[in-house]
Write a structure and sequence with these properties.
Number of helices: 11
Shape: globular
Helix content: 55-70%
Largest sheet: 2 strands, antiparallel
Strand order of the largest sheet: 1-2
Radius of gyration: 20 Å
Structural class: mainly alpha
Number of strands: 2
Length: 229
C-alpha cells in the first residue's frame, strides 16, 4: 500500500541534511506537496474527510516528514490557507513564489465588468477557491480551526483593503472602494453556493455580467502604476 511504503521511507529532511545547502529547498518541496494534497482533498472530499492519513498518502511523503511540519490537522490547514490566499495578496509570498498577486495579470485595468469574470474563472471557481470555501465553512462550527485561521483572515482582509485602492477608484472619490470590493467578494463566493441551485450553467455567467454592469458606474479600474508610491 502507498501509505505503508511512505511509512518506511526516510524523511525528506533527514535525506536533505546530508547535502549542505539542499535542506531549505527540500523542505519547501515537501511542505508544498503536503499543502497541494490538502487543497485537493478539501476540494474533492471536504474538510471532514481531509485526514492526516489521506493527505500523507496523496502527497507521497512519510508520516514522519508530515508530522514534523504539521503536528495536527489544524496546523496543516493554517499553512494551506496562507497558500490559498497568496494569489490575491498585494505582495508575493516567498514561500509560494509561483503565486501571482492579484492585479498583476493580463487585462488588469480593463474595468470591473471585465475583472469580475476573470476573477471568477481564475481564482474563485477553481480547485483552490473551492478549498478555501471548505475551510471557511468548516471554521463556522469548528472553534479551534476558527481560532487558528482568524489572524490570517484578518491580515489578508487588511492587505486586500490596501491593495484594492491601488487598482480601483470610486465614482465620487469618497473612499468607498474597499466596501465595494467587499461586496464583490461576497457576491463571488456566494455564487459558489448558488450555482448548485442552477440547472443552466449559463445562469452564473449572466449573474456575473449583470453584477459587473451594476458596479461599473461606481468602481473604476486604474491604469497600472497610477497609485504607486
Amino acid at each position: 500500500m502507498q501509505t505503508e511504503n511512505a511509512e518506511n521511507q526516510p524523511s525528506d529532511e533527514t535525506s536533505a541534511s546530508r547535502t549542505p545547502g539542499a535542506n531549505d529547498l527540500r523542505v519547501a518541496r515537501t511542505t508544498g506537496r503536503i499543502c497541494q494534497a490538502v487543497i485537493t482533498c478539501l476540494d474533492e472530499v471536504g474538510y471532514a474527510e481531509t485526514s492526516i492519513n489521506r493527505v500523507q498518502s496523496l502527497a507521497g511523503v512519510s508520516r514522519g516528514a508530515l508530522t514534523h511540519h504539521f503536528p495536527s490537522k489544524e496546523a496543516m490547514m493554517v499553512e494551506t490557507l496562507e497558500r490559498l490566499l497568496d494569489p490575491v495578496r498585494g505582495q508575493p509570498n516567498p514561500k509560494n513564489p509561483s503565486a501571482r498577486p492579484f492585479g498583476q495579470s493580463e487585462g488588469q485595468g480593463d474595468g470591473i465588468d471585465a475583472d469580475l469574470p476573470r476573477l471568477w474563472a481564475k481564482v474563485v471557481n477553481t480547485k483552490e477557491g473551492r478549498a478555501l470555501i471548505e475551510l471557511l465553512v468548516a471554521a463556522r462550527t469548528h472553534s479551534e480551526l476558527a481560532e487558528r485561521i482568524r489572524p490570517s483572515l484578518h491580515a489578508y482582509n487588511a492587505e486586500i483593503g490596501l491593495n484594492i485602492q491601488r487598482l480601483y477608484s470610486s465614482a465620487d472619490g469618497s473612499g468607498e472602494v474597499t466596501t465595494l470590493w467587499t461586496i464583490c467578494r461576497a457576491f463571488l463566493r456566494g455564487l459558489q453556493l448558488q450555482q448548485q441551485f442552477e440547472s443552466d450553467p449559463r445562469a452564473v455567467d449572466e449573474a456575473i455580467a449583470t453584477f459587473g454592469k451594476i458596479l461599473a458606474p461606481h468602481l473604476f479600474a486604474l491604469k497600472p502604476g497610477t497609485n504607486d508610491k
